[in-house]
Specification:
With 436 residues, the protein is an all-alpha fold. It is 73% helix and 2% strand. It folds into 2 domains: 5-262, ABC transporter involved in vitamin B12 uptake, BtuC, CATH 1.10.3470; 288-361, Arc Repressor Mutant, subunit A (Orthogonal Bundle), CATH 1.10.10.10. Strand 2 (352-355) and strand 3 (358-361) form a beta hairpin. Helix 2 crosses helix 11 and helix 14 (286-316) packs across helix 17 (363-385). The chain starts with a helix and ends in a 20-residue tail after the last helix.
Length: 436
């Protein structure tokens, strides 16, 4: 009888090595998400990709030089060429007119091409020891042994500790590098330290995620976390959490199906988290923003309708006279359906009441409408008097601002204009207090 994936995974957890691999994946994801957030904030998202590709020739050269696949040997080689990649990018940008993005692309292409050539040469030697080096391209959690996991765990914990110690410095470097220089901070040293941490993160993640997809684990957790918060500490925690979850999911699939590389499934997991954040984050998510935009449009339409009914009453000298929704539709350029829907919404809020096929303002509705018209005419007067716009050019601007002015801004605006009584067209400005 075939086991379900959940049962098979539960059986795998009885293996100490499997638990160690999952722990290593969790720590790597957390470390990559944390370090990558600073790279993302500094607009250096491509740096992780370039460094990941730059490590491949180091892995191959270390194997050719020693014939050993010991993790410390391979990671040392990867670190050396990754560090050379960062120095190469810095040298190109400092001593030539080539921009940083082009320099990163050059380093990525050249180093990765060299790595593929070396890897091909190793594979053609037929040496038995070279088996498994190709796993560095896409990663394979199932290929890790206990010693690999402990090295990965130790390095990742050291990286997280370094971020904790240098948090204040990295924060200022990410948001205001110029201010950091003005304070006399060693910005070059801090940049080098951050690049070194990114290099080490990439290096330790090669066996799990692989060269090709390591950049996704660096950048995507921070990008997903950015949708949920404006505060850097919270963003770092969320990025670490998202990276940890995606690392565990990718490793789990690789362990359940040994032919499945870890990297692609880790990227699928973190991309799914990013997609959920993009769509459903409460403030910046697409759904939340669409809902707020829809509510703003609805509120604007409703307030415009109230103002129109107030102006109808102003023109006739009697606000108790009902008016059909068709008149509103004609005045505001709305369809009859939208006009009727708007009147029903205003009725639910207690601002209008029906009379046959027509509608009129309730006392609270008239009060609310007066305030909307008041803000409109105050802003028209401000535009005409302070910005010297012609009176026939201020209506559309005021039509927008009347929905955005807060009571505090309205009071400040009235004080600036010395409590005016007439707008640029000579019409009376309603009082701030009803009945005044």
């Amino acid at each position: 009888m075939n086991e379900t994936p959940l049962v098979a995974f539960a059986h795998l957890l009885t293996d100490a090595n499997v638990r160690a691999v999952l722990l290593g994946s969790l720590l790597l994801g957390a470390g990559a998400g944390t370090i990558g957030t600073f790279a993302l904030l500094r607009r250096q998202a491509l740096l992780g990709d370039a460094l990941a590709h730059a490590t491949l020739p180091g892995v191959c050269l270390a194997f050719l030089a020693t014939g050993s696949k010991h993790p410390l040997v391979l990671l040392t080689g990867a670190s050396v060429t990754g560090w050379l990649g960062t120095r190469t990018v810095r040298a190109i940008t400092q001593h030539t007119r080539i921009r940083e993005d082009a320099a990163l692309a050059l380093v990525l292409s050249v180093f990765f091409g060299a790595g593929i050539v070396l890897l091909t040469r190793i594979q053609r030697t037929g040496a038995a020891a070279q088996a498994g080096l190709d796993k560095f391209l896409f990663g394979q959690a199932a290929s890790l042994v206990q010693s690999d996991v402990w090295v990965l765990t130790g390095v990742t914990l050291a990286l997280l500790a370094a971020v904790l110690v240098a948090f204040k410095e990295f924060q200022l470097l990410s948001f205001d590098e110029g201010f950091a220089r003005a304070l006399g901070w060693p910005v070059g040293v801090l940049e080098g330290l951050l690049a070194t941490l990114i290099t080490l993160t990439v290096t330790v993640g090669l066996q799990l995620v692989g060269v090709v997809l390591m950049a996704a684990l660096l950048v995507t957790p921070g990008a997903a976390a950015r949708f949920w918060t404006d505060r850097l500490p919270r963003m770092l925690l969320l990025a670490a959490l998202f990276g940890a979850v995606s690392g565990v999911l990718g490793a789990s699939v690789s362990l359940l199906a040994p032919r499945m590389p870890t990297g692609p499934w880790t990227v699928v997991a973190i991309t799914t988290i990013f997609g959920i954040s993009l769509l459903f984050a409460p403030r910046r998510g697409v759904v939340a923003r669409a809902w707020r935009r829809r509510r703003l449009v609805a509120r604007t339409t409703e307030e415009n309708a109230l103002a129109s009914f107030w102006r109808f009453g102003e023109a006739e000298g009697d606000w108790r006279v009902p008016h059909p929704a068709g008149r509103l539709a004609t005045t505001r350029g709305l369809s009859r359906l939208v006009a009727e829907r708007t009147m029903r919404a205003l009725r639910r809020q207690g601002w209008v009441e029906p009379e046959g096929d027509a509608w009129r303002l309730t006392p609270p509705g008239r009060t609310r409408a007066e305030q909307i018209v008041r803000l409109h005419r105050l802003w028209e007067l401000y535009l005409a008097e302070r910005l010297h716009l012609p009176a026939d050019h201020v209506h559309e601007e005021a039509e927008t601002m009347e929905h955005l002015l807060t009571p505090e801004l309205a009071a400040q605006l009235e004080a600036t204009l010395a409590t005016p009584e007439r707008d640029p067209h000579g019409r009376a400005i309603p009082a701030a207090e009803p009945g005044r």
